[in-house]
Amino acid sequence: MKNAIFLAARYLLFYRWKSLLIILCLTLTGYVPILLWLVLGEFDQRIAARADSTPLVIGPPGSGVDLTLHALYFTARPKDGVPARELQRISDSKFAHAVPLHCHFTARGYPVVGTTIDYFDLRNIDTAEGRFFGTIGDCVIGADVARDLRLVVGDKLMSDRENLIDIAGQYPLRMTIVGVLERSGTADDRAVFTDVKSSWMMLGLGHGHDDLRDETDPHKVLSREQGRVVASAAVLPYLEITPELMESVHFHGDPDEFPLTAILAFPFDEKSETLLIGRYESPGGSRAAQAIVPQDVIRDLMKLVFQVTQLFQANMLLVGISTVCLLGLVIALSMRLRANEMETMFRLGCSRSMIFNLQAAEMMIVVAISVVCIAALVFASKSWVGQILERLIVGTT
Amino acid sequence: MIQIRDLLFRYPRSPFVLRIEEMTVAAGEKIAFVGPSGSGKTTLLNLISGINVPEQGSVAVADFPINQKGDAERRSFRIATIGFVFQQFELLPYLNLLENVLLPYRINQALTMGPMVRQRALALAEQVGIADKIHRFPSQLSQGEQQRTALCRAVIAEPKLILADEPTGNLDDENKRLALELLFEQSREHNATLVVVTHDMGILSGFDRVVDFRGFRAREVAE
Questions:
Q1: What residue in B sits closest to A352 (Cα-Cα)?
Q2: Would you call B99 and A348 a contact, using CB atoms and an 8 Å cutoff?
Q3: What is the arithmetic mean of pLDDT over B126-132?
Q4: Cβ separation of A347 and B84 shorter than 8 Å?
Q5: Does B53 touch chain A (CB under 8 A)?
């Protein structure tokens, strides 16, 4: 067999492009279904783990999938929000820990998540560098954000403006990075976290600006009534809130009505969870919000994904069968093309078993290289496929 | 070494008939088959080597009744006993010159490849003037170089019988001389029987016997 392998290897090397083409066909035929299976398994595991660690999401009525993906992956921003008083209601109910989420803006393309420090505690995330945010204008960034944007503690990060034309509209906020989160392999790696109040400031609900009590410029002060100063749009808010300017920060409106895009609820026990869900689902329950169990939503989503996958796998099976048939044809044609060579072997006295060994060795080498390629590709894919698919699916949802 | 009796061979759907009443070739003998194209010289080589089987009669090589044996035994006998130089050289295109010379050691499980065999292959290549091209593939060699490679392949395993079909057909005078020297030397050193088919009357002087194939019937014309 050693000699057959030698001759087969020489043949494959001499016709290397033809051999490579066959190896490529076999590799792809084997690799794609395995990759799909691997990716889905990884994706299912990741997305399920994230959903499992988030028992309940409260958010505005509408698509449960959108709300879940928004709360878990900070995507698919809901059209409406829930008022902040809903957070207080949940806390007052003593059924669950409630963590606010306001995810409306981005900073250099990454979602800015307004929340409280409880978020990190309940998600069990710590900082790799620095500390958690303490005051308005502080932020902590995910590991991928730090790596991709090459940011470190002490750097500044400006939120993205939604509308560059509207100069009287929302102003961006320059945040100070006070911490970098340790890598968690979740969407938290690709987000910027700040206090929910900072997020509301980006929304224009709060700001800091020069003291107008003694301001005499008529362009800046529209009116004064009983000690209340009404300023014009000419008064520009501070883009960055430094400790010295903190005193000037104030909010307009009823804080209970300030919007949250979602609330993460961590019920104390099963009964509390049931009761909390009941509050939103009962006929007399809140109509301004809905309670979603992410596990259920993700399970339904994955069912759909797996159904699509089954179709894809059936398709791959057909492609595989076609490839094997084509390979058979290639081998048959190759045998015809090599008839002279086989005739020479016969005339020299080469045995039938040797000729069979030669053909078998060629197939064996091609299949072995393909298997090695598949294994190498699968091994290389393992580290990144889950994240890539997570980004792809979550990013397009 | 070779005994042929009452041999009759016909190709299917062909008027060609080869008849040989009797032919004996002694061990170590150097014999040349001459005659016009289509007279049956190559056919006889194929019959002696068991590639073809006669319709009638017997062919025995080294007392082995080759025409009475099955395909597997004929192959086994051929690879163990005969060194073949084909008219079209029939080198494997994906093996370089040296690997082509060593091919018998790759396809005959009874032979063992070793450094000595490689040395011998290199020495043979040197002897016929192709040692500087051992890493070239057949497509990179001239016709003459391919022919000399085929010669080396035929003798590398030191066969007891060398069958050469037009071994000097594509060679210039100097290389003809080198090629014949190689064949005669192998015959002499290993007491191998040498059967050469040729059109080249200029090379017949070194042979013990010449057989003329005119008229589809072998006839000894000289001794």
A1: B72
A2: no
A3: 88
A4: yes
A5: no
Same domain assignment for residues A327 and A274: no
Task: Give the distance from residue B184's alpha carbon to the nearest chain A alpha carbon, in angstroms.
Answer: 21
Whole-angstrom Cα distance, residue A85 to residue A208? 24
Counting Cβ atoms within 10 Å, is residue A301 exposed (0-12), middle (13-18) or buried (19+)?
Answer: buried
Token duo for residue A242: 């430094």
Residue A347: which of B172, B197, B30, B107 has the closest Cα?
B107
**Do A178 and A130 form a contact (C-beta atoms < 8 A)?**
yes
A241 shares its domain with A333? no
Each residue of A178-226: pLDDT tens digit? Answer: 999 998 888 899 899 999 998 888 887 877 776 666 666 777 677 777 7
Sign of the alpha-carbon dihedral angle for A68, A73, A78, A81: positive
Domains of chain B, first to last: 2-222 (3.40.50.300)
Structure tokens, A105: 């803006």
Q: Is the pLDDT assigned to residue A58 strictly greater than 80?
A: yes
Q: Say whether A352 and B75 touch across the interface (CB within 8 A).
A: yes
Return the structure tokens found at A86: 């809903």
Q: Are residues A272 and A319 in the same domain?
A: no
Residue that wins the pLDDT comparison between A237 and B188:
B188
> What ipTM does the predicted assembly reach?
0.83
Distance from C-alpha of A179 to C-alpha of A190, rounded to nearest angstrom:
14
**Amino acid A284: pLDDT:** 63
A32: Cα within 13 Å, side-chain hemisphere: 15
Interface membership of A269 toward B (CB under 8 Å)? no
Helix (H) or strand (E) holding A230: strand A228-231
B75 contact residues in A (CB cutoff 8 A): 346, 349-352
B137 has a chain A CB within 8 A of its CB: yes
Tokens of B164: 């050469």
Same domain, A279 and A316: no
A96 beta partners = A267
Domain coverage including residue A257: 56-292
> Residues A160-179: pLDDT tens digits?
877 666 655 667 888 999 99
Q: Do A7 and B106 touch (CB under 8 A)?
A: yes
For B72, which of A3, A348, A351 is closest by C-beta distance? A351
Is the CB of residue B51 less than 8 Å away from at least one CB of chain A?
yes
Instruction: Give dist(CA A197, CA A141) in Å, integer.
Output: 17
Q: How many distinct structural domains can be found in chain A?
A: 2
